[in-house]
Design goal:
Blueprint lengths: L7 E2 L5 E3 L1 H12 L1 H4 L27 H21 L2 H16 L22 H16 L3 H12 L13 H11 L2 H17 L6 H5 L8 H8 L1 H9 L2 H17 L22 E2 L1 H17 L2 H17 L11 E2 L31 H6 L3 H7 L2 E4 L2 E4 L5 E5 L2 E6 L7 E7 L4 E8 L8 E4 L2 E2 L4 E2 L2 E8 L4 E5 L4 E6 L3 E6 L2 E7 L2 E4 L13 E4 L6 E3 L5 E4 L14 E10 L5 E11 L6 E11 L6 H7 L1 E11 L5 E3 L2 E2 L3
Parallel strand pairs: 6-10
Antiparallel strand pairs: 1-5, 2-7, 3-4, 5-6, 7-8, 8-9, 9-15, 10-14, 11-12, 11-15, 13-14, 16-17, 17-18, 17-28, 18-26, 18-27, 19-20, 21-23, 22-23, 23-26, 24-25
Length: 637
């Protein structure tokens, strides 16, 4: 069996996370990841540790209840492993043990009501098996791939319908562990049978076309990555090509400044008012991780990093106790009626709550950061690459490699090699595309290197105490966006005019409590500014263990702005909302009430008519620090 991946994951047991990243994982443990039952159904009664009877009219939970609890399980297992936390891991272990001890005689694993499927019921198994994959990464328990193999091969099922085809991902993972060719055959057949009958934009034919995709965002990511996985297992380029084209298209048509594509809930456009579903933070970066492994190209790691450090951290509160369902680069009002996307417009989906509207994101939000941490290092044979940067250490080939840095809040990453004897290692370092003058020194001496596919390689014999320093200087600059928009970025970080906001607890939300409140949030200072293009000043502050807040932001940018007169929050007493994006023409409903929305950017004509104020200086913070934020500014002329 040959693995055609250019990069492969390492065991989570070899990885140790430190610094602010470890603190963030602790926030997850004390927040939603450790206590998601506060979000209500299904997390408070349905799970893979008990195939319980529901309280719905049918008497059984729908497939989605198991999908969403499996998201939580996957996040909980990975956070538990990265923190070496027995409580979280024990909680996850109950689900694994129960599912295995309650499997059917034919090897089928999971709730009985999911066994017969119309194309959707067996999709939740994909999410559940990802948590078992994580358990295998940490323990090497060979029962796991064998049980998964028996589930697929001994319990016959047609996996070519709808989301059931995503099981191809798990079939191929098990094949890479045990080399069972019947798994590979089933995966290829399921993929091609699905593509023959698929008529929407989630098939290989549609991915290869130049047509702008119209599809559910999560579904698009889940399907698009399958070609990369099949390439890893077969080396056939006809599998990889649709995957690469699929992601080029969303980069072109739907990518937003914070590193995630529009998905509200469908792939629509990339204008400044578009939002994205929090589920897609995990699904997009998880899928791109496979593309990174298939191609070995650092550009995909760049995209993952940008999405996590901006869109991801920006979608949850500083204490990880509330999340958004829809998140936006410009969001000034986040209350129970502030969703300005057409889909369920006027609902609570943009507000920060333990459960902001649907349960999928409440489960999936627990995955994005541990998935990012778990792929910090990747290997190929006896070569190791640092893919993402942050305080950590990794054990590999007889070496312990310590990584010391406050990245992304500083530009230098220092690696210290610990070993009992001299050992040779080909060590790769990702050089982000935004860095034009990287530098590498070994024991203080400058080292020449070349960059291939976004990685520099330092191939040498390392002795105990050897120190490698990577310097990644970043430029502070503005980026034009849309007809009259502009934003500020530096390296992987997007900057925003952020404020803590006037946070009012919504006492009408039944899933809100004192420890996990649901918020209605409004601006608490003036925000209606246009950016004066010119000199900007970067300022650094002392780094704290919890840097993702307005108060503790370790890096800020001072910019010049002018007030845009009469540019106000948008008030409406009647709106039109879309309730079914799957149908055309869209099903719209008229809603009446007192609505307050984030306004679109003012046009040049509006600013000329109403005028601008005198020039002022304001401070921008990293995007993840701000929940009330103006990121894309109109340009002051």
């Amino acid at each position: 069996m040959k693995n055609y991946a250019k990069l492969e994951e390492i065991s989570l047991s070899r990885l140790h996370i430190g610094g602010w990243m470890k603190e963030y994982l602790h926030l997850q443990k004390e927040g939603l990841t450790g206590h998601l039952e506060v979000a209500g159904y299904p997390f408070d009664r349905i799970g893979w540790d008990r195939f319980a009877v529901d309280t719905t009219d049918s008497g059984n939970p729908g497939w989605w209840a198991y999908e969403q609890t499996a998201y939580w399980l996957d996040g909980k297992e990975r956070v538990g492993q990265l923190l070496r936390d027995r409580t979280l891991r024990h909680s996850a272990e109950k689900s694994f043990s129960y599912t295995i001890t309650h499997r059917d005689p034919d090897g089928y694993l999971g709730p009985k009501q999911l066994k017969e499927s119309d194309g959707w019921n067996r999709w939740p198994h994909v999410v559940f098996f990802r948590s078992l994959m994580a358990r295998y990464q940490a323990t090497g328990d060979k029962r796991i791939p064998e049980l998964i193999t028996e589930h697929y091969l001994n319990s016959p099922h047609d996996y070519s319908n709808f989301r059931d085809v995503i099981n191809v991902e798990i079939m191929l993972w098990a094949y890479l562990q045990n080399g069972n060719l019947n798994l590979l055959s089933l995966a290829e057949k399921s993929y091609w049978d699905y593509n023959e009958r698929c008529t929407d934009d989630n098939c290989a034919k549609a991915h290869l076309s130049n047509k702008k995709a119209y599809a559910h965002g999560v579904t698009y990511n889940e399907y698009a990555k399958l070609g990369a996985l099949l390439y890893i297992c077969t080396g056939k380029k006809e599998y990889l090509s649709p995957t690469l084209k699929a992601y080029k298209k969303i980069d072109r048509y739907q990518m937003l400044p914070d590193g995630l594509h529009c998905s509200n809930e469908f792939l629509l456009d990339n204008d400044v008012m578009q939002t994205h579903e929090t589920c897609d933070i995990a699904d997009y970066t998880w899928a791109l991780g496979y593309v990174l492994m298939a191609t070995g190209k650092g550009e995909y790691a760049d995209r993952i990093e940008r999405c996590i450090l901006n869109a991801g951290i920006g979608s949850v509160t500083e204490d990880f106790k509330a999340l958004q369902y829809f998140s936006c680069v410009n969001q000034l009002v986040m209350d129970s009626h502030s969703n300005h996307s057409d889909f369920f417009k006027g609902d609570k989906w943009m507000s920060y709550r333990p459960n902001p509207g649907t349960e999928c994101c409440a489960g999936n939000v627990n995955r994005f950061f541990p998935l990012y941490c778990g792929r910090m290092y990747m290997k190929k044979g006896r070569a190791l690459s640092a893919v993402f940067y942050g305080e950590s250490s990794v054990d590999f080939a007889g070496l312990t490699i310590e990584q010391h840095t406050n990245y992304p809040f500083e530009d230098t990453v220092r690696f210290v090699f610990r070993t009992d004897k001299a050992r040779k290692l080909n060590f790769g370092l990702r050089i982000p595309a935004w860095c034009h003058e990287p530098q590498i020194t070994v024991n203080g001496e400058k080292t020449e290197f070349t960059v291939k596919n976004g990685f520099a390689s330092v191939n040498r014999i390392y002795t105990d105490g050897d120190t490698l320093e990577l310097h990644l200087p970043a430029e502070l600059h503005t980026v034009d966006y849309g007809k009259n928009g502009v934003y500020v970025e530096r390296g992987p970080l997007l900057f925003t005019y952020g404020m803590h906001g006037d946070r009012q607890i919504d006492k009408n939300d039944p899933k809100s409590n004192d420890s996990f409140p649901a918020y209605n949030i409004y601006p608490d200072q003036k925000w209606n500014y246009a950016l004066s293009i010119g000199e900007m000043t970067l300022e650094r502050r002392t780094m704290s263990g919890k840097p993702w807040s307005i108060e503790a932001a370790p890096m800020t940018v001072s910019v010049k702005v002018k007030e845009v007169k009469n540019w106000d929050l948008l008030r409406c007493n009647k709106i039109r909302a879309v309730h079914n994006l799957y149908k055309r023409p869209w099903d719209r409903e008229t809603k009446k009430g007192d609505f307050l929305f984030t306004p679109p950017l003012p046009t040049d004509a509006f600013m000329e008519k109403n005028g601008l104020g005198e020039e002022e200086t304001i401070t921008l913070v990293p995007y993840g620090c701000a929940k009330v934020r103006l990121t894309v500014f109109p340009k002051a002329k």
